[in-house]
Protein 1
Amino acid sequence: MGTFKAWVVDKTEGGQNLAFRDFDEADLMDGDVTVRVGHSTLNYKDGLALTGRSPVVRRFPMIPGIDFAGTVETSDHPDYKPGDQVVLTGWGVGETHLGAYAKKARVKGDWLVPLPEGLTPEQAMAVGTAGYTAMLSLMALDAHGVTPADGPALVTGASGGVGSVAVALLARAGWHVIASTGRASEADYLKGLGAAEILDRAELEKPGRPLGKERWAAAIDAVGSATLANVLAMTKADGAVAACGLAQGMDLPTSVAPFILRGVSLLGINSVTTPQKKRREAWARIARDLDLDKLASMTRTVGFEEVGRLGEAILAGQVRGRTVVKVA
């Protein structure tokens, strides 16, 4: 046992405090696998945890960071042995269980998946929860039965992490992708990922009518609130919308009109406690279907010491695509 560097959130009278400090390995939480973390990443939820802007952290002290890729150091789990490369997303890590912004993590082996064949640890974290969520959304649309022949697919929050990967995945699957963003300067970036059209998010973020003109057959929405209500109102008959985020808000000011007059389906995406079989299927599809050149084009890598300034940036919408944190 010894100490290692970690970003640690402690509770204070005014809220919470974030510090980069030594952490004692003996204080890691229960788990049957200890992992030497090599890479992590930055998601919207990480921004909330780092800043305390929302009560994401429910245990103090907490090491934030909901994703990691690393190497097994010790294991009492039958599926893993020292030296295995593994990936973790979700399961409350970084919220209720000590997380990824640390040199080491101890977790339940049932939460892990082997590093997918064809991906490096850094690429796996370029995907992270955001890209994994985008794939779960695409899988939900596929299971519903909507296809590119039915019409375009919309992606909201397109220049963010979920949105960027969703644009790339949908385009590669043959969809005519409409990318919604509030940053006109990102048009070339999004078209480089495969977007065919750019839609100003202002057209979606204000309260709208229960039904609007039918514009898309499918959508992946990471925004919620009035944006999701408008997306539903403009989805074509028998279309489907995968809802996976709440950047605008948790509310949904809509009516039953899209559902009972057009047969639109709202598909909820839970990326936190996805069963192991489905989780592995999603990662296998990511390794197979995601254009790694496009993944590289949407990714930047930062040092471990830079984590402290990332929270405010992602919440302010200043982070494009994916950010990998090089921990090792």
Note: The domain at 3-115+298-326 is CATH 3.90.180.10 (Quinone Oxidoreductase; Chain A, domain 1).
Protein 2
Amino acid sequence: MAKTATTMDELLAAQGDSVKQLTQGESVVGTILSIRKHEVLVDLGAQGVGLVPRREVGFYRSLNVGDEVTASIVETELDNGYSLLSLRKAVKDRGWDEVMATMESGKVIEVSPYDANRGGLLVEYDGVRGFLPVSQLSAEHYPRVGGSDKDEILSRLNILIGKKLTVRILDCDRKANKLIFSEKEAIKDGLAARFEKLAVGDSVKGVVTGVVDFGVFVNVEGIEGLVHISEISWERVSNPSDYVKVGQTIDAKIIAIDKDRLSLSIKQLTEDPWMTEVDQFKPGDKVEGTITRITPFGAFVQISPAVEALVHVSELGGGDDADPEKVFTLNERKAFVVLDVEKDSRKISLSLPGKTKK
């Protein structure tokens, strides 16, 4: 008996529920049929053929015929009968699942920034793009610059593009398409252990990461330290950049340990020359000095390389003579008389000749 021809409807009916209709937004698995300049065709088995458009061809540069890929359905049927697919969306969807799992676990991961702006670094993780703000960089990578030099900040951040950074996911919101990374959080556990090994009075080595008006920032094995301008040198410091440069390795003494930062001193690693030089001055001595500062309450005078003394306004007499601005000129040299030496409080008082109280 001859076989009866089977119609397509009968074939589909025989398949029953095994042929599932495609749904927009769902993920499907298929095999690469062909790779052309403007499109990639994907065999979806009984569900037909899918097309990946030109704009996504470059997303996977290593695709080969026969490779199995996961794609997302953008449109179930085009005019040519194909389904419109997105490889990028499927990767991103899977990526968000990984992102959520990584954040919940608190796992430390490695990322490489692909771009930078003045606010931070642009990062992609498992197909999901995110952001690493400047404020979440470690002491090693934080761009410490004077004032608010945004161009210099961007220049420092550009150096980190392509560099492997250890981070944790700080925040993620799939609906808002927000993904925030933190380098500070990733190294926090290690920093706590390092802090425990440090004590006030210890001498440490560090690398200068920033020089600003009020001092010097130093990276001490991943811990941020600050040398205040008053702790750079025993002599008066007007410009910290005259003493250290970014990238320079320095020795410093820990003078305080805060919650997440060290207070450091460079000058306290050497003997205070003031204590030696002050011994040459006694009340009644006549000295010469250079006016270094003029204030409403008097003038400061450099009477030796390390010793600065004060002529108080009360030593200038009355009337116009009591106005330091009218009596002194910055950087001029004048003769003075030593009134008092207070070694414990590091103070020397001066008077003008002829103005000394009887």
Note: The domain at 198-269 is CATH 2.40.50.140 (OB fold (Dihydrolipoamide Acetyltransferase, E2P)).
Protein 3
Amino acid sequence: MRITLDPGHGQFGNPGVLPGYYEGTRVYMLAQLLKRELECYEDTEVIITRKRIEDNPSLANRGGEAAKNGSVLFISLHSNAASNPAAHGVSVFRSIKRPDSEHLGRLLGAAVVDTMKKHTDITYLRGVMTRTESFDGQIQDYYGVIRSSVKSESVRYSYIIEHGFHTNLTECGYMFSDEALQQIAEAEAEVIAAYFNLKKKDGQMCDYIEYVVQPGDTLTSIARKYGTTWRVLAEYNKLQNPDLIIDGQIIKIPLSTEINTGDVVRIKEDKDTYYPGGNPFPKWVKDYDYVVGKTADSRGEPVYRGGDKCVLLGSKINRKTGAHGSSINSWASMEYIEKIRAEKI
């Protein structure tokens, strides 16, 4: 899997409120650390847009590098700025052309927040957002790095991550620490590895991250932060009483259960329809696994049936022989299917 990291700005771009802090320098260091963490996984290649710290490519060339080299994932690394010194928090921007990238963006944002807040006590997720503009009557991504990256279909995930505000004394102080950058690199790499089912070079699969329960947390609030449901977390963590979690408890977040186009899925044993309120399906349907054909309609919008978000089941796979057959082409609720194995990246 190929990933492009883009440390924003140039070496002395955007000074912070602490003397000696420059956004362009700090995110360049973060990119080096994140590259090192990601390349601990098998078949993973990381390309950085700034080959040297003094480099400052154009916005088009930054995103264009990912489009040119066939990357699946593009991340432009930044810290934010505002005229109000009290402004704080983490923001993630995604491409308007990649609606399916919302979930990974939320996971990355939540991981950065969890890492920073342990030390700042103020950092929160401001949102996973898109920003657009109109050009020649067409709506396009506002940010040039995102816009140029998604010119290639290979770039399925394109983000700008703002790692707090360097105009905020507390968050600038955290990002000024080399140890802090290492913590963020580890957190982001862990999310990416889990999401794409990457295998550590020592053979260990990374299929979840750990969350430490904080005062006031509920299983529902934790699930909402990571874009899942309390039922998924309760089942994955084998919680006898989902309403009873305590401060300091470790909750595992099963990131690899996210379903994408090309994944192989199976209809759950206790389901007899494709979605809530649907007609009963023939019994032979459960004799097969299925390749996910689509996760959205032709306009990129989610498809709902019976109130549930659905995916399109494509070709059948014989469970005994593994042979692929004809396509079933039926929309099925994400709650009614389970992921058997991930797509090949």
Note: Residues 5 and 48 are 5 Å apart (CA to CA).
Protein 4
Amino acid sequence: MPEQFQAYQVGKNDDGQRCALTQLDDSDLMDGDVTVRVDYTTLNYKDGLALTGRSPVIRKFPLTPGIDFSGAVIESSHADFSEGDSVILNGFGVGEVHSGGYAQKARVSGDWLVKVPDGLDTRRAMAIGTAGYTSMLSVMALEDHGIEPGEGNILVTGSSGGVGSVAVALLNKLGYRVVATTGRMHEKDFLTRLGAADVIDRAGFSEAARPLGKELWAGAIDVAGGNTLANVLSQISYGGAVAVCGLADSLNLPTSVAPFILRGISMYGIDSVMAPIAKRKLAWDRLAADLDLDLLDELSFDLDFNDLPQAGADILDGKLRGRAVVKVP
């Protein structure tokens, strides 16, 4: 690898935040014991916030955004990694307080890396990305709660997005009957192809929730928060659970304790950023085994590295469907 490399940099001045493609060299790499040639990265909702500055995701400037990447180790002093290993990184503050995947090269702590599991390559690893990994953590939470296929419908909110679309595909492959909500009903055929048994309009979840609604769902995966989550909680069947992994609608939760006390339901917070390595390895191994990879190829699309700034705005505006895979030049 040449000493110089291309990277997006987000800087900040009195006029606000600005993102630009620039030339860096090895002296700009952060401290770490593994250097990686970045092959692929992706675009997540959080990346859109970082690229556009619509929310203060980045807390250190200047910084290279991109909360995940995959690639090959080119230098390592870490005991678990050697030159040529294919690796994945997501979370641990990368793209927020540590430089991330929107660069040709990255230097990181080897304690943050996971080897690409058998059955995946670096491209498919980023077709899954942080969104798909979060989906797997959410599915694992419902499984750990004891919800089994055949016990009732599983609801997935925001199912046209990265987390939701992979969650629908995973749950269907594992034998669950999935009901998907979306604000884009024209995507019904797409969601049915992923495995949704039914697709409903998210508008029905936008109003203020009653303390208790009709018991409709054995479990749910929610990416929205706000009134959506409040309504979902009120509709969970006795003893069911919701895996909460996003706040696309709102950080607020206008609900009551009624469904927790009167129906004994549970709510699991899903953290994809600081989850321990053992749990990460399990999630990635499960993804390699339990996700239909042909279907993964269908729900992912190629995004040009040079188009990342505009795509960052598009994902926030709900204009992208599925998983964006970015080949780093």
Note: The longest helix spans residues 122-145.
